[in-house]
Specification:
Blueprint lengths: L6 H9 L12 E6 L5 E8 L5 E7 L11 E6 L2 E6 L7 E6 L5 E7 L2 E10 L2 E4 L7 E7 L5 E6 L10 E8 L2 E9 L12 E7 L5 E7 L3 E7 L7 E4 L8 E6 L5 E6 L5 E6 L7 E5 L6 E7 L5 E9 L2 E11 L2 E4 L12 E8 L5 E7 L2 E9 L3
Antiparallel strand pairs: 1-28, 2-3, 3-4, 4-5, 6-7, 7-8, 8-9, 10-11, 11-12, 12-13, 14-15, 15-16, 16-17, 18-19, 19-20, 20-21, 22-23, 23-24, 24-25, 26-27, 27-28
Amino acid sequence: MKKNYSKAFFAAIAALGLATTAAAQPTYHVTEIPSAPGAACIGTAINDAGVVAGSCLPVNGVAASAANRGIAIWRNGVPTVLGALAGANDFAANALSSTGVVVGSSDATSNPRPQAVMSTAGGFLNIDPVNGGNARAIGIMDNGVIFGNLTKSLSGNTASWQVMMWTQDKGHPDRYRETSFPKLIAGDAKFAGIYALGSNKAGQVVGWVTNQVIGQRGAFWNNDDKHSIVALDTLPGGSHSIAWGVNDLGQAVGESNGPGYVTRATLWQNDAAHTPVDLGALPGDNESTAMFANSAGQVIGFSATGTFPTFAATRAFLWQNGRMFELGSLIDPADGAWTITGLFGMNNAGQILGIGTLGGRFATIVLTPAAQ
């Protein structure tokens, strides 16, 4: 049966900078990211050079030490444990710059709540030590500007969170200045909430926004002087959306529901309207969500069949050139029959950081595109 596609369909594809012709199925090679000696480690961020950041904990029976406990970095596959704030029990690496500066969160002996931290030559720096609450750094630009979230409330109310930008004080290199991003106030201001989930090298930030009029929508903060906020529209017939990531072109990705409250992986174009595009789901699936995108127009996420919160199966996907592939099926068979169970990032070189299982064994892995 012949399908008739609208002009809007082809305009959406063109706006993404993608060809309308079918592309060859890509192939990936797997590289395992080893743990530090005496530690169990996981990678949670990757930069364009393929440097990975994550965290390590000592394995059972091994005493904790500076070499096996803390935020870690992998260069050329070699792990180095960088540590955390003094006395830390919980820590996480959320992003790293092109030069390998890591940002994330860490508690400390002096403060049991998470604090926004960055790696320095002298150890980890608490970039906002007088915030009075808890903070998490989620992104960093190559010029050192850091993005994240901060709350000074103990109530647990989502409206207490602020989206933050931290910039270095030129007169005091070990101090950072706070800039709070705007909310969308509508109705009772105490119900207006925001949270940042991703940022790009251009200083654009995405996440979610809530208020009494629009409910929950994906949020996009521009890199203008006012850091103006835009609520990202849902797909037609939808009632809520959320943006999980943004590429360096300003295209946001995440999820939106549609008719019947079915959630679909969504890409918001970088046009003036941030037009949402339904990326679909893998064959046989009815729900999906997009997690990361790169500047080549590739998107990764998960596709599932079933009804929330119970799904019969969940599969990682790669979307490119208008097609969605099951990510595990793209791995070179010579590298083994890996199942992808977690996704933590994708860089502009097309490398994908995730968690995989092979023969019942878990490992942090990097998928690198094979030469075409």
